[in-house]
Structure formats: structure tokens, C-alpha cells
Amino acid sequence: MGGRCLVIFDCDGVLVDSEVISNRVLASMLSDEGLPTTVAQARRDCQGLLLGEVLEHAEAKLGRRLPPGWLERYERERTEAFERELEPVRGARQAIERVTLAGMTKCVASQGKLEKTRLSLALTGLRDLFDDRALFSAHSVPRGKPHPDLFLFAAQTMGAQPAECAVVEDTPSGVTAAVSANMRAIGYAADSDEAALRLAGAEIIHSLDELPGVLGLD
Q1: What is the separation of C-alpha 30 from the centre of its chain, rounded to a whole number of angstroms?
Q2: Is the pLDDT of residue 1 over 70?
Q3: 175 close to 201: Cβ distance less than 8 angstroms
Q4: DSSP structure class, residue 65
Q5: How far is residue 103's CA from residue 68's CA, in Å, rounded to a whole number?
Q6: Are 131 and 138 in contact (CB under 8 A)?
Q7: DSSP letter at 88?
Q8: Can you name the residues that pair with 204 across neighbouring β-strands?
Q9: Would you kindly state where each structural domain of the chain is located, as residue ranges?
Q10: What is the pLDDT of residues 55-88, one digit of tens each?
Q11: Of 20, 77, 32, which Cα lies nearest the Cα of 58?
């Protein structure tokens, strides 16, 4: 891909190693409400969902509403866990710097709120690599992933055409969104379902060390 390429990174599970932490907190809180849930089950059922969708899914399985303020408490407990434990995905800084050195533009597009993305990048030492204008949230568009709205909004804001964009994602819903946006989808499968990513339309990498080569930078 040429120097005009925009590389769009998902945040959770691609740049920051947050999935186990988030889903551990979620599983514990759901179990406390009478819905026994393992970390694996929470990740299977809720990975890639907006927070409101997580709430709807949990209440549907419980057959009742969760207590008022439950979602806010989840966000608070997740943030506290992030502050104690969150680390960058191995090779994230090096991959981002290599993209920058090649003259490509870059941004982050996440299902999460902007404040969560900013915090996650700051806690993992990656915040300095992205301008404020290069951070995007599904909360800013009509529909989140698997719809293409978020990636199309990011590309338009960054001045790139969809055909010039490569999206790095670790969820089938994110890959589906990239494909629907007519963007190149790169599936990061280090800790995700490789078969599901392929089925959604992704090229596969197992380490961010592979990303420069896949982008033609080596």
C-alpha cells in the first residue's frame, strides 16, 4: 500500500491488552447478580459490543433489569482494574512507529468511549503516538461495529478514501465493519478466534511484529 494509506487501529485487544481484564470484571459482576459467568463466556458473548448492548444482553439472560447504576459501577471497577494491571500489546509501539516512519497516517477507532481510549493509551504509554483528532469512538456515529459507520467517519475525518485504509481488528464484528466499509481488514489473531476472523474477511497476523510486512513496509 502507498504512503497515503490510513491505518486504523482498534484499541482493546489490538493496542492494549484489556480483554481479559474487562471480561474478568464483567464476569464477576454478572455472577454476583445471579448469572454465573466465566471470563471465557463473558468474552464470547460480549466482546465487541457497545456498553448498552452488554447491558441489554445481560438483562435478557437474567430475565430482569440490573440494579440502577450497575453499568456505571462496571465502568468504574474496570477503570480501577486498568489502573492496576493494563499493559500494551507486545509490539504495539514499534508497529505504530513503523507506520509513522513510512509516512502513513494512523488513528484509533474503538467501540469504547473516547475517555476510555485516552485512558487506556495513557496507562500503556501509547498516548503520545496519536493526536486527539486521530481518536474515534462508536459513540460518535449512529451505529457501532459491525456496521461501517465508525471506520467511514474516521477515514473521512482523516482525509482518506476507504480503498486507502487498512483496519487492524481482533473481533469478527470489527472485521465485518471494515469489509463493509470497503477497507482492507487485517485480523490480529494472537488471542482471538482465527477461523472467525478469516470467515469475516480478514487477512491474519499473529503478532504486531508482522504488521509492517503485511503493509508492505519491509
Answers
A1: 22
A2: no
A3: yes
A4: P
A5: 48
A6: no
A7: B
A8: 187
A9: 6-17+87-214, 19-85
A10: 999 999 999 999 999 999 999 999 999 999 999 9
A11: 32
| DSSP per residue, 120-163 | HHHHTT-GGGS-GGGEEEGGGSSS-TTSSHHHHHHHHHHT--GG
Residue 187 contacts residue 204 (beta carbons within 8 Å): yes
Element spanning 110, H or E: strand 105-110
Dist. CA 65–CA 56, nearest whole Å: 9
Q: Is 11 helix (H, G, I), strand (E, B) or coil?
A: coil
Domain 19-85's class?
mainly alpha
Burial per residue of 162-196, b for 16 or more beta-carbon CB atoms within 10 angstroms, e otherwise: bebbbbbbbbbbbbbbbbbbebbbbbbbbebbeee
Nearest to 109 by CA among 170, 56, 61, 161: 170
| pLDDT band at residue 3 under the 50/70/90 scheme | very low
- 189 grid coordinates: 489473531
Is the separation of the CB atoms in 209 and 98 below 8 Å? no
Those residues with Cβ within 8 angstroms of residue 147's Cβ, 6 or more apart along the chain or in another chain: 177, 180
For the domain bounded by 6-17+87-214, which CATH number is listed? 3.40.50.1000
